[in-house]
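Example record used in the benchmark description.
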Amino acid sequence: MLPRKVLCTLCLGCTLLLLTGCWDRVEINQRGFVVGVAIDKPEGENGKNLYKGTYQMIVPGGLKQSSGSTTGQGNSMNPHAGQAYFNISTTENSMPAVAARIAGRTSRSPYFEHLRIIIISSDVAKNKANLPNVLDFFLRNSEMRRGVQILIADGKASDILGIYPNNESTPIDYISSIAKNNQKTNFMLPESRIGDVHEFLIKNESFVLQTIKKEDGGVTLNGSALFDGTTKQLLGFLTGEETQGLNFITQRVKGGIIESNVDDQVVGFKVERSNRKFYVQQTSPGHMKFTIKIIAEGTLDKSITNIDPSEGKTVEALEKSLQDKLASTANKTIKKLQHSYKKDALGLGPYLFQDHYKMWKPIAENWDNGENLFAQAEVDVQTKVIIRRIGNIFESTKE
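Model output (structure tokens):
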């Protein structure tokens, strides 16, 4: 047998062979950190290329400088000098080809691990199967994270990356901050993350995604983009008010305001909690009657001076006015989805699948396709608003 010391030396020698360095290591100063991607349809190419990709890449030196005051303006020799970011665009027939072409035009190879937002233009999204084709590259990329946000641009996506980033270092920081404000407004959807969108694409259910539009030098995220669950193509947009109704129906309200008119004046109600329940009755093999009950609780955020909200009857009248407004908003959303688009983004189909499968199975193929039983369904909305607190009152007068 070999001496013990010799055996230990051989074992240690073999172990050293396994302690090799990272074979794919790339130094940080050689990476091009991509934080935003905009995807458009190329203009004036007569179908030569399918996609125009615009990458927003971080300039580490400029990011450090901009943290002190404002983003630098560059100079004639180097327009990116002092800036925290720059945008670079190219056109190709696929997203991997776009990434490869941009890698050949920048000194730092595009790196997607810090990617935060992907913006897809309405022109790209309205074509059949374009959304899954575009996202396939990002879903398969090992550098990607499942929390990347997906936005549908009402207009050109690349224009969004060119806005001035008020109070932020980059446009992506600015957009990301706005997208998280759904606790203050219910006129926009919660963030649409790529992991959630992947699930939507696998299912055959119609869905909505967060939308973005350039406006007054900045952006607005009010409203939502509606997609066909079968073809995965963009059908159109819902307004902010219609999105508000959809949020209450789908239980995605985190806060925000409901406004109604009392005595020709506006009363504001701050939503703190919201709940919704579905009920269904099958009146015939192809006809469903749904009841949607919505409950909202919160605080009187704005009152009017000629009423005293501390009185019980006054509170009841305010609650009735707010209930009517909420029901009206929800019914507008239902009407738009049933009659204009004939697509179920309300969640009624998934509700039947989960809770009433025997009822759902015979009609599944004809729910929002074929005979389109969704458009023929009867939907009744019942609302209840509870004012828990009336807030601070500066002045009230009684007649």
